[in-house]
Every structure is written in structure tokens, then in C-alpha cells.
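The instructor's notes for this session suggest beginning with a concrete chain rather than abstract definitions. Hand out the sequence below and ask the class to guess, before any prediction is shown, which regions might be ordered.
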Amino acid sequence: MNREEINNKLEFMQELANRFPTKDDAVTEIINLNAILALPRGPEHFMSDLHGQADAFTHILNNSAGGIKFRIWQLFNGTLTQKEQDELATLIYYPKEKMQIVLTEVPDKEKWYYDNLLRIIEVTKKFSSRYTRSKVRKVYQDDNLSYIIDELLNNKIEEENKDKYYKEILNTIIELGYSEKLIILLSSIIKKLSVDVLHVVGDIYDRGPEPHKIMDSLEEYHSVDIQWGNHDILWMGAAIGSNICVSGVITNSVRHNNLDILEDIYGINLRPLANFAEETYKDAMVWKPRHTKDEDYLTNLNVRQSAKIHKAISVIMYKLEGIFAEKHPEYKMTHRRLLDKIDYENNEITIDGNTYHLEDTDFPTIDKNDPYKLTKEEEKIISDLVRSFLNSESLQRHMNILIEKGSMYKIVNNNLMYHALVPLNEDGTLKEVTINNVTTSGKKLFDYIDLLVRKMFYCRTQNQEELDLMWYLWCGPDSPFFGKDKMTTLERVLIKDKKSHKEKRNYYYQYQENKEVMENIMKDFGITNLNNAHIINGHIPVERINGEVPLKADGKVIVIDGGFSKAYQKTTGIAGYTLVSGSTGMRIIAHEPFTSLESAILNNEDIHSFIDIETNPKCRITIADTDKGKELKSQINNLKMLIECYKLGLIHENKEYKYVKVYKKTKR
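After discussion, reveal the predicted structure:
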């Protein structure tokens, strides 16, 4: 470093000297940072398209995608039977629930506590070995037992001179009734250390019954980021007051027979809508929820009521969609104005020059002369529903998590993450998309959308025309969340001819196997080192059952939608993917279906996971090879410059300040 460089940063060096007032302080920190750079990098987990399947998601968080059981096998294979290993794994996954069952059966509780504490301590040590003591300590420093945990993790029971000391700690914990608390705490530490960062690459919401539980887990998770998916965007739009997004959320929920999430969890009052549907629509057979039969509609009141709600809210949605398309010609969605194409006399509709038979044309609220006009009752219903969404505290809290922890995309360690796609032209170049009279493509498009979404969320505009953007992002032909020319919602309900259901995909999917095109996308997003760079996304399920693999474009693209949702598992042949990126490379882990939480706790049933694809680097990847490593190297360079400033006399060492600081700390 030269004198000019030092002079340019002298003011910053003076600030840095407040933290490191002597040359010795700076040297000590450099030694510490250089040592950290040599540690193996922590594991990142990537998951996508959870679709409200909280049971499987929670279990995979608890078992670290099979990582905890693997470490147990490494430690205890040959000393514990497979059954005992499974028992220990379940105890770590669900410590409180498992102990409630086991402790009613064991004859000697004290021995059980002692044995399992020793085992769990060993597992904790195994996971903590890749981190500094300081980082491990931060995981439990706020707990009253932090000092005891520190001693247990940093000493050995067989260590000379400390064997009795170690055993006495354990015996006293058991004697004073703190065993269960310690087991729960150590299990939590293991889970936190087993995953350094969790990336959720979109679609927490959709057809699964418990997205709220996933959101609660993510709110408390130690390190997580989210890349918004199309279903997340739809819910976010509803939460900030978009009437058409509200109609879309309710339509999706009732179609999948999942209104409980709205009524019981988020407190949305659907009673006026249900009453209106019952009074207005006599027949709604074709609107029955998915996976129900005609017989269910005829014999089950709940199914019949859901079908009528589905019909009522869908008609409102079709009207709002028509109004939306007329207001926003720039979105090129006039093809979704379908209600004026209905021939009621012949029960037919004409779409793109093709005429199809309609299974239902009983729409008393549609004025043939003005088909997109809402009746007064419909206006009041949707207005009240919007208000209910806006006033739901639990919904707003969950959407706030999506905003604070989420974004359009994220780049970490040369991995570009986004949920669905980057819109492309027919020749594979970035497609320009116009939003609010601003035309952009690629990264600039993503950044602009991210800005607009945050602005709408924080400013809380009640202007429906502004909020309409959220609907476009949900199903617009050039939306980076959707990736198709249209969403054939009406056609799939009312037309049996599947030709009308066809949705043409964006050219992105034709080029997903093209390495050059995918690398051009990465370059546009600012990734310069393409050797170990990847695009990681979900959205379209990988049909593994038909031989499709998650790796595309010579390994540059990794698609991790493996079918967490039970509805997609027949398509994929598995029950989801977890991508694990750690010090030994990348592993794509495929999961088999989860049975139930009850069976997992009672019978030690685990999600069977297997490595589908694995990459092995020539040498172990360390923190020095990561984004964090770049930050630490920059800090080291600054500290070296500070030392040079001390040597040149540009900044004077403050040894007196150091003495005062140490003295105060000792006194305290």
C-alpha cells in the first residue's frame, strides 16, 4: 500500500483506531480473522415451493435434511444400535414431545438423562467444531445455563484431572431437575449449528393447509432469507388492499378446500360471501373443490357451500380481471376479458377464434350488456373483504416477514436465487418489460419491481390502479413470477376441452438448458466469476419420476421444486428437494413423503432422504472462499493499513485508552 492510498483513507483509519487503539490490538484481530478464514464454510440450505406443507418443512428443518442423523451415525455407529440412533435423532428433533412419552416408560430416569445428555453433548460438539467458540457461544449466550453449556462443550469427560469435574456437572444438573431443560436447549443449538443460512426460494403459500406455521417458523429462524414466489406476491397484494388479489386468494383457497386458513387463522370474515353465494347460485356442481366428487357435492353440505363460494368469488374475480385488463392495456392482458365472449343461448364461449361448450352459464349477477360491472352486493362483499384483509393482524405480521426477509432475488456466494424466471425473447436475449411507463429488463427489471412492491407495502396506497401491479406480477404474461402467456382459470373450471387450458411458457424455459444464455443472465446480475456460479430457482416441478434432473445447462442452473406439496408428488415422484451447499461441495437431497408428526415422535419415523446429485470439489471449501471471506479479507487489509499508520506516526497509539477499557471491564 502506498502513502496516497493511506491518505485517501486516513479519516476512516482514525475511526478504526477507536476500535483498535494500539498496534497489538490490530495484530490480534488480524490473527483472529486469518484463523477464521481457514475454517470450513458453514452449510447453506435451499428450499422452494413449500406450498403450505408445514409438517414436512418443519421436519426437514428439525432433521437438517438428514444431516443430524448422519452425524449421529458417524459418532455412534458400532456403539448404538440403529433403533437407539433413531431414538436419539427423534429426541433431538422433538425433545419436549419425545420426553413426554419416553419418560413414562423408562425404569431409571436418572440413567436415561445421564446417557442421553452425554450423547447429545457429543452431537453438539460435532456440529460446533466447524465454528469459532465465539460464534457457538452466541447461539446460547442469553440462556441462564450458558456457562454450564460452555464447560460441557469445551471439556471432555475422559480428560485427565477433569473427569470428576465433568461428571459432577452432569450429576448436579440431573439432581436439580434441569436435565430436560438442558436437553431441549442443546437440541436447539444443534439445529441452529447444522444450518448456517436457510434460503427459501419462493412460494410459501398456495394449496397446502398450514403456510402460517411456516411463516411462524421463519419468523423465529436464526438466519433466513426469502425470494418471493408468485403465490407469495398474490397474498402480499391481498394484504395491502388489492381487491382483485383478495378475490384471487379466496378463489385459490376454496378451490383447494382450504378456507380454514382464511377464517380460523387470519380471521377473515367469509360469512357475507357465503350467504350471498347461497342466495344467488342454485347450482355449482362444476365449482366443487378439487379432489371432491359429484357425490360429495350432493351429500355433503360443506362441499356444496364451498362450491357456491367458489362460484361467487370467481365471478367477482372474472369481472375485476376484465376491468383490470381494460384499465391497463400496457400489460397486454385484454385476452382475459372473457365474460363478453359468452353465448348464453348456446352455452358457449369463443376464445381466440375457437368456440367451446361451457359446463355452467348460470350467472345471474352478470349483465349481458355490461358483463364486467359488479352488482351492489358484489361491490360491498369485495369491499368488506379487502377491509378484513387489511385489518387482520396475523396476516399483516406474516406479510411483514415476507417484506423484511424477502426480495425479488438474492446473490450469495456466486449463487443467483430467484423463484421463477428472467423473461427472455425468442432469441434468448433479455426481454424488455414496461411497467408504469418504465421499460427495463433483467436485473434492472427485478430491482424496479422490488422497489415498487416495497413502496406499495410501506406507503399503503388505496389506489387500486397502483395496486393492480400485484395482479400483473401474479399472472401477467411477462411477469418474472409467472412465465406463461396467460392463466386459464375460467377455462379449467368451465371447459372440458383441454385445448383451452393450454398456457404457453416464456422462452426462458426453452433456454434453461442453454449454458451461454444462462451465463448471460448471471452476467447481467453482476456475477463475474462464472466458474462456480449457479442460478437456483423453483416454480416448475422437476418430473424426476420421468427421468428429469434438477441440473440444467451443464450444471449452471439448479431447479429445486421437487414437490413439497402433496398435490405435486405424483408429478415429481418425490416429496421435495433440499439443496445443501457446504464445505464439501453441493448436494441435491431428495425427500420421500412425510407420514405424520405423531408417527415421527411415537415411532421414530423420519423422512427418508437420499443424495440425488453431488458435486465434490478438489479441496475443502473454507470461509475464505465465500462472500463472508471477502469481507474478512477487506477488514484484514484495513487493519494492516492501520498498523502502517501507527508505524508512520500518522495515528498515535492510545495505550491509556486501552488500559481504561480493560480496567473498567475487570471492575465490572
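Then share the key points. Residues 301-327 form the longest helix (27 residues). Residues 230-499 form one domain.
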